[in-house]
Design a protein that fits this description.
By secondary structure, the chain is an all-alpha fold. About 65% of the residues lie in helices and about 0% in strands. The relative contact order is 0.13.
Length: about 190
């Protein structure tokens, strides 16, 4: 993980990342029952990392804000490198799935790749899983059955298990959400 820590001079980079992600995701909605604006998701990740896990590495926070731009927008890795540098672009590339593969294969590969990710990518992916599992528990895709929700949560647990060792705070938060699946029967 980078040793670059937040300071007042980093605020413009964080704001630039939010503006970039907001623009790239401007026409996207989350697949929850409220069809929330997509930018809420990267904002939630940044919050989990900075406020909950006390991560103050600017590169990690910026990469978290940008984490879905390669996967869900027309953004390229070269564009991220130009705008945000190699460290941030590399972290985003590391957690981006190959959308040319079938979804089941993408999910299988996420489980296999999780233990091999850099610490920065593990932190982002763990925060992403926390946000996604919380959304599945509280505001799932309107067309998902409870069984589909449980299958997603179980898959998330397999990925999270491969991410352990980077943040006990985030791991405990994920485990607490995972435990809630028993009490949220639909």
């Amino acid at each position: 993980m980078s040793t670059h820590r937040n300071k007042a001079g980093d605020i413009p980079l964080l704001v630039k990342a939010f503006a970039f992600a907001a623009d790239k995701h401007r026409n996207h909605r989350r697949e929850d029952r409220h069809a929330s604006p997509y930018i809420n998701h990267p904002a939630d990740l940044a919050h989990e990392l900075s406020a909950v896990a006390k991560i103050d590495d600017t590169a990690v926070l910026v990469a978290a804000i940008l984490h879905d731009t390669l996967e869900y927008t027309d953004t390229t890795a070269d564009e991220l490198r130009t705008e945000f540098g190699d460290t941030i672009a590399s972290a985003v590339v590391e957690i981006t799935d190959d959308k040319a593969l079938p979804e089941a294969e993408q999910k299988r590969l996420r489980i296999l790749r999780a233990p091999k990710l850099s610490d920065a990518a593990k932190l982002i992916k763990l925060a992403d899983l926390i946000c996604n599992v919380r959304d599945v528990l509280n505001s799932p895709h309107p067309e998902w059955t409870w069984q589909e929700c449980l299958e997603y949560i179980e898959w998330g647990k397999q990925v999270a298990d491969g991410l352990r060792g980077v943040s006990h705070v985030l791991e405990r938060k994920f485990d607490a959400l995972y435990a809630l699946r028993k009490y949220r029967e639909r």
